[in-house]
Design goal:
Blueprint (H helix, E strand, L loop, with lengths): L1 E7 L2 E7 L5 H8 L18 E4 L2 E4 L12 E3 L8 H12 L9 H14 L5 H7 L11 H19 L17 H4 L2 H4 L3 H4 L6 E9 L3 H8 L2 H7 L3 E6 L3 E10 L2 E14 L4 E10 L4 E14 L3 E13 L9 H22 L15 E2 L4 H13 L4
Helix pairs in contact: 2-3, 2-5, 3-5, 10-11
The chain binds FE2/S2 (inorganic) cluster (2 copies).
The site of one FE2/S2 (inorganic) cluster (FES) has 11 residues, from loops.
């Protein structure tokens, strides 16, 4: 059991949970907050959407243990929220619900949309809502309801007076260029590990070549990009890289274009890449930091320790803390290690590295993730 302490709808909650318990079960079964509904339990339908630290997240693919120290807000926590009041009225007026099963998740996603995109048109609203499924309404009433409240928000945001204090201001985002500046890149990793709302994972892998060979390979940015599935390098010099990473998370595809500043310390054999990117189609944005450290392994090999920390805003943020996203990160690192090993293998010792796939499809990893979980439950070797 894992002890956790979090804030749910403004109330401090402490509990012991099994590591595999997802947040939706914790909210429903332990806290009796049954307004959070469970449909697919695969991160697809959006019925279980809640806010975690102010951003929409799918509670069925987020472990409760991951929410230690965070703030969770469920549909029960919006009684006094003015935007939610407007949305509830609009959903009733526009016939935006029938059975109501999708409605809690739909309302929380809609609130995020109207606050983030005041004045959004129908096309944008349909795109933004594409991760929330309704089996009853045909969506017309829902879209009309969200459009009417988004229009009100648009008028309010254009008015000369300041918006009501109770309406959350959309999170600010640091442009890629600013984030990639050398000054930002000098922040200590320890400080980075404490960033609120960021997701972090660590992995390590072994490359069957000496540390100096691996160190030199990491300075070859086109080679590194060719080993990273879904990555395209468009521009680079010794300290900066620009490119694109194509990913699919749940029902949403995204191509993040951005840049990163790279720092390397040869004496310590460590490196850091800090950057930011955005996906125009989903209007999701990300900032991230990757650090690596090389240590010698027996037999002349090298262990590469990797720590990745990232923050997502926009529709894809719903998946950023999910086990699916973490599985995606683990698979990405494993594929990279496999490709780099193949690339650095002495001539004739291994086949050439396969070309990087056009995109990294997280949905393709669902079965791998499930199988991995089943194996660990059954105590089978990994
Ligand atoms: S229950 Fe369907 S996304 Fe969580
Ligand atoms: S109102 Fe029934 S699923 Fe949406």
């Amino acid at each position: 059991m894992t002890p956790i302490s979090l804030t749910v709808n403004g109330r401090r909650v402490s509990a012991e949970v099994e590591p595999r318990m997802h947040l939706a079960d914790f909210l429903r079964d332990r806290l009796r907050l049954t307004g959070t509904h469970l449909g697919c339990e695969h991160g697809v339908c959006g019925a279980c959407t809640v806010l975690i630290d102010g951003a929409p997240a799918r509670s069925c693919i987020t472990y409760a243990a991951q929410c230690d120290g965070l703030e969770v807000r469920t549909i029960e926590g919006f009684d006094d929220d003015p935007t939610m009041r407007d949305l509830r009225a609009a959903f009733s007026r526009e016939h935006g619900l029938q059975c109501g099963f999708c409605t809690p998740g739909m309302l929380i996603a809609s609130r995020d949309i109207v606050q983030r995109l005041p004045g959004a048109d129908e096309k944008r609203i349909r795109t933004e809502l594409s991760g929330n499924l309704c089996r009853c309404t045909g969506y017309l009433g829902i879209v009309n309801a969200v459009k009417s409240v988004a229009a009100q928000q648009g008028v309010a945001s254009e008015a000369p007076t300041v918006a009501p204090a109770t309406v959350a201001e959309p999170a600010r985002f640091i442009p890629a260029e600013a984030e990639a500046a050398p000054a930002a890149a000098s922040r200590a990793p320890a400080e980075a590990g404490e960033r609120k709302g960021w997701t972090r994972f660590e992995e390590s892998f072994v490359i069957a070549r000496a540390p100096d060979v691996v160190w030199a390979a990491f300075a070859d940015f086109p080679a590194v990009a060719s080993c990273l599935p879904g990555a395209e390098l468009t521009e680079h010099d010794e300290r900066t890289v620009k490119g694109r990473l194509n990913v699919k998370l749940g029902p949403i595809s995204a191509g993040f274009a951005g840049s990163a500043a790279v720092e390397r310390n040869e004496a310590a054999m460590t490196g850091t890449a800090k950057g930011a990117g955005s996906d125009n189609a989903s209007r999701s944005r990300t900032r991230g930091e990757l650090t690596y450290r090389l240590t010698p392994e027996p037999g002349g090999a090298t262990r590469v320790h990797v720590a990745v920390e990232y923050n997502l805003q926009g529709p894809l943020a719903q998946f950023s803390r999910s086990s699916l996203a973490q599985e995606l990160g683990r698979r990405l690192v494993a594929e990279f290690a496999h490709n780099l090993n193949a690339r650095l293998a002495p001539a004739g010792a291994a086949p050439a590295a396969p070309p990087a796939p056009a995109s990294l499809d997280a949905v393709g990893f669902v079965w791998a993730a499930l199988w991995s979980r089943i194996k660990s439950l059954l105590g089978l070797a990994r």
